[in-house]
Amino acid sequence: MSPRPVLRFAPSPNGELHLGHALSALVGFDMARRFGGRFLLRIEDIDITRCREEYVTQIYEDLAWLGITWEEPVLRQSLHFTTYSAASDTLLKLGLLYPCFATRSEIAEATETRPAVTDPDGSPLYPRLHKNLPSEEIAARLTRNEPFALRLDMERALDALERMTGKRRVTFTELNETGRPETVEMDPDDWGDAILVRKDVPTSYHVAVTVDDARQGVSHVTRGRDLFAATSLHRLLQILLGLPEPIYHHHRLLTGADGLKLSKSAGDTSLTALRRQGISPQEIRRLVGLSGNA
Question: Edge-to-edge, what's the strand order for the sheet holding 149-152?
Fold first, then answer.
């Protein structure tokens, strides 16, 4: 018998959950029940300066109120930096990472004079300022304890991908809104030399989520459509690190009256506030466009 499917919901405790999070959590939880699978909760709190313990408590309370249950223990990413560093060290030993000492102002100045080339998130594509620094200069900067990030050398990474798969693009299986599987092909080069280890945190979202999905045995990754493009980078990392390939489902996003997706920073009505107003979990399902109990 094949193992039971494993799905997860992985919020960041840097603000209160809103209706968009409810949709994401319910989509994953409902799918786990339909598949007879397991459902995990992961707290993605690597950004220790913005994440707060009170939001973790609210996450537990909001999800329980929605009728969502999960397996224990809950994985807290902030307790596993050494695990993510081990993955980055593997890439470093393969010659696929390089130190970037560039400041935000230096990057902004360099991109101002270039054509508007952006990554899938809309940020200016990194101009590779420090990609080919002499080893002596790198050593001197490290001796002076200058802060640096580790960036993926995308050109070398794609060379390695081609040696391993015969292609410079990645593919993955996407379950569409009807549940039908589709094969998607994407170009990781759209991300350029992405940051994999931040200056302020010994990892990045891309590394942590890829490593955790693998070590938790997640078979189906359900998340919002805003993360669809990131799948090309995650698939690249999975191949380079020898990690298993999950099936993906990027669900629709909820938007406000302005047409923009709901966000914590925009102050969209939180689940905690709705709960205190007496809104029922069944009403939340209706508000996010889900019917019944899955």
Answer: 97-100, 149-152, 195-197
CATH code of the domain occupying 81-253: 3.40.50.620
Residues belonging to the chain: 294
How far is Cα 22 from Cα 66, in angstroms, rounded to an integer? 8
The set of residues, in sequence order, having a beta carbon less than 8 Å from that of 178 and lying 6+ positions away, is: none
pLDDT value, residue 2: 62
How far is residue 275's CA from residue 165's CA, in Å, rounded to a whole number?
49
CB 91 within 8 A of CB 195: no
In angstroms, the CA 264 to CA 87 distance is 30
1-79+254-294 and 81-253 share one CATH topology?
yes
Nearest to 9 by CA among 87, 53, 75: 75
CATH class of residue range 1-79+254-294: alpha beta
Where do the structural domains in the chain lie, given as residue ranges? 1-79+254-294, 81-253
Task: Give CA separation, 199 vs 123, 196, 225, in Å.
Answer: 18, 10, 28
Q: What is the pTM of this model?
A: 0.94
**How many Å separate Cα 17 from the centre of its chain?**
17
CA-wise closest residue to 290 among 242, 251, 263: 251
Low-confidence residues in the chain, pLDDT < 50 = none
Tell me which residue of 172, 177, 181 sits closest to 252, measured CA to CA: 177
